[in-house]
Automatic annotation (TrEMBL):
Main location: secreted
Keyword RNA-binding: no
Name by which UniProt lists this protein: Cerato-platanin
Top-level taxon of the source organism: Eukaryota
Regions crossing the membrane: none
Organism: Cerrena zonata
Record lineage: Eukaryota, Fungi, Dikarya, Basidiomycota, Agaricomycotina
Subcellular location: Secreted
């Protein structure tokens, strides 16, 4: 696969870091995760590591929080791994 920019990923902007991605070349890189916050869900493609939870794009967080990211900053979401097809990958 030859992805040269974040925008070339089909699930962009719903991409981000996940604690499941332990390091470079991790088998968890490219996994898809459903994040749910207050009955709203988005699917996020894990492409990088973060120390805890998820670190996703501002656009993704705004989709998940109905545009309230500026008021919330950080949220606690329910997560579950889903098939990669849910992230168009």
């Amino acid at each position: 696969m030859n992805y040269t920019t974040y925008g070339s990923l089909q699930n962009f902007p719903n991409i981000g870091g996940a604690a499941a991605v332990s390091a470079w070349n991790s088998v968890a890189c490219g996994t898809c995760w459903e994040l749910t916050y207050k009955n709203k869900s988005i699917n996020v493609l894990a492409i990088d590591h973060t120390d805890e939870g998820f670190n996703i794009s501002e656009d993704g967080l705004n989709q998940l929080t109905d545009g309230r990211l500026g008021h919330l900053g950080r949220i606690d979401a329910v997560v579950r791994q889903v098939h990669t097809s849910a992230c168009n990958f």
